[in-house]
Automatic annotation (TrEMBL):
<comment type="similarity">
    <text>Belongs to the FtsA/MreB family.</text>
</comment>
<feature type="region of interest" description="Disordered">
    <location>
        <begin position="325"/>
        <end position="360"/>
    </location>
</feature>
<comment type="subunit">
    <text>Forms polymers.</text>
</comment>
<keyword id="KW-0963">Cytoplasm</keyword>
<feature type="binding site">
    <location>
        <begin position="199"/>
        <end position="202"/>
    </location>
    <ligand>
        <name>ATP</name>
    </ligand>
</feature>
<dbReference type="Pfam" id="PF06723">
    <property type="entry name" value="MreB_Mbl"/>
</dbReference>
<comment type="function">
    <text>Forms membrane-associated dynamic filaments that are essential for cell shape determination. Acts by regulating cell wall synthesis and cell elongation, and thus cell shape. A feedback loop between cell geometry and MreB localization may maintain elongated cell shape by targeting cell wall growth to regions of negative cell wall curvature.</text>
</comment>
<dbReference type="InterPro" id="IPR056546">
    <property type="entry name" value="MreB_MamK-like"/>
</dbReference>
<keyword id="KW-0067">ATP-binding</keyword>
<keyword id="KW-0547">Nucleotide-binding</keyword>
<protein>
    <recommendedName>
        <fullName>Cell shape-determining protein MreB</fullName>
    </recommendedName>
</protein>
<keyword id="KW-0133">Cell shape</keyword>
<dbReference type="InterPro" id="IPR004753">
    <property type="entry name" value="MreB"/>
</dbReference>
<dbReference type="InterPro" id="IPR043129">
    <property type="entry name" value="ATPase_NBD"/>
</dbReference>
<dbReference type="InterPro" id="IPR004000">
    <property type="entry name" value="Actin"/>
</dbReference>
<feature type="compositionally biased region" description="Gly residues">
    <location>
        <begin position="339"/>
        <end position="350"/>
    </location>
</feature>
């Protein structure tokens, strides 16, 4: 039984290959002093309200393991949720990772997955998985531009022939915007709100048209619990500044794209995936700034896991077909696009023309055979 795992900063998503069963819970782990552990939804309920002696942590940040022990607990829990108590043997696991993480960081992800019970671990670039999940023709010579907006990482990737032509990343996302909202309310009003309140304020932009929003938190002047009316303009200014960073990232990806591929984007549009795609006002700002057709993928939050679930069987069948023909050479064994190998020495996450040519010749060879 093989498992696909998207270890997001805010949520993990996990599924078993060949089954429709996919689940998602917050990437949160909580411990009390006696070592009792809560994971997922139960741990998330404690964020900002953990009883004394209990700490709730997010072990994954921007695809990187921040707390190894908690990450192992999270992954073990993800396996148990996906397998619903059946753990017949150590499963092979495909995990999505952002582009540009270091070899040491990749090794930490692999180690955590093995420690949690995984057997073989395959890393797969999340932008490629997102493109597959969004239904983009990622392995055709037609170029596509995908913008994946997560909680801890924002990536803009140009893909063609199943490989990454160029990828730009900023290690910030919706979680950083929540932190910026907490900070601006603290500075402006000497009032402390929690991250979950800040996230709710962010998500309510566009839904609620009132000029002020009422929040609960701590009045820092008195030290006591209080309510506060926050102006919508304060929240919107933080949202606008985050949107500017995303616009900058997209513009730089467009500027560096080969001209033929830019023509392709103009035909098929730029596709946005990830939870951040729902941020109010982002789409109109991106369209206005780039004058390009931009669309949000269906079910944008789950594109990465759906892409992983459909890419892995495709890769297996391609390898099996080539092996049957006895032509698979051990030095250049075809892998699914985006897979960075089962070890930390796997291919570079960001490609260039070399990656493009490698994938082009590999696909041509496969077709010829
Ligand atoms: N309606 C909304 N408006 C604004 N932001 C939203 C909305 N809904 C979800 N988000 C944000 O989307 C982010 C979560 O997106 P996603 O699930 O793609 O991230 P992730 O996969 O956990 O993180 P990453 O891939 O960066 O490690 C959170 O910051 C969340 O607040
Ligand atoms: Mg993600």
């Amino acid at each position: 039984m093989d498992i696909a795992l998207d270890l997001g900063t805010s949520r993990f998503r996990v599924g078993v290959l060949g089954s429709d069963n996919m689940c998602s819970e917050p990437s949160t782990v909580a411990y009390d002093q006696s070592g009792r552990q809560l994971v997922g939804d139960q741990a998330e309920q404690l964020i900002g309200r953990a009883p004394q002696g209990m700490t709730a942590i997010h072990p994954i940040l921007s695809g990187v393991v921040k707390d190894f022990e908690a990450a192992v607990a999270l992954i073990r829990y993800a396996f148990s949720q996906a397998l619903q108590g059946r753990m017949p043997r150590r499963p092979n696991v495909t995990v999505s990772i952002p582009t540009g993480i270091t070899a040491v960081e990749k090794r930490a992800v692999e180690e955590a997955v093995r420690e949690a019970g995984g057997k073989q671990v395959q890393l797969f670039e999340s932008v490629i998985a997102a493109a597959i999940g969004a239904g983009l023709p990622f392995d055709s010579p037609h170029g596509a531009l995908i913008l994946n907006l997560g909680a801890g990482v924002t990536e803009a990737a140009v893909i063609s022939l199943g490989g990454i032509v160029d990828c730009r990343k900023i290690s910030m996302g919706g979680r950083n915007l929540d932190e910026a909202i907490v900070e601006s309310v603290r500075k402006e009003h000497a009032f402390l709100i929690g991250l979950k309140t800040a996230e709710a304020l962010k998500c309510s932009c566009g839904e609620d048209s009132s000029a002020v929003l009422t929040v609960r938190g701590r009045n820092l002047a008195t030290g006591l619990p209080d309510t506060l009316e926050v102006s919508r303009a304060l929240i919107e200014s933080q949202v606008a500044s985050y949107c500017e960073s995303v616009v900058g990232l997209l513009v730089s990806a467009l500027e560096s794209s080969p001209p033929e591929l830019v023509g392709d984007f103009m035909d098929s549009g730029i596709v946005i995936t990830g939870g951040g795609s729902r941020l109010h006002g982002l789409l109109s700002r991106l369209r206005q700034k780039t004058d390009m057709p931009i669309v949000v993928a269906d079910d944008a939050d789950t594109c990465v896991i759906r892409g992983l679930l459909s890419a892995v069987p495709q890769r297996e069948s391609r390898i099996a077909a080539l092996r049957l023909r006895g032509r698979a050479r051990s030095s250049d064994r075809p892998r699914s696009a985006g897979a960075t190998g089962g070890s930390a020495t796997g291919g570079s996450a960001t490609g260039g023309s070399a990656t493009l040519q490698r994938f082009a010749s590999r696909i041509r060879r496969t077709l010829e055979e």
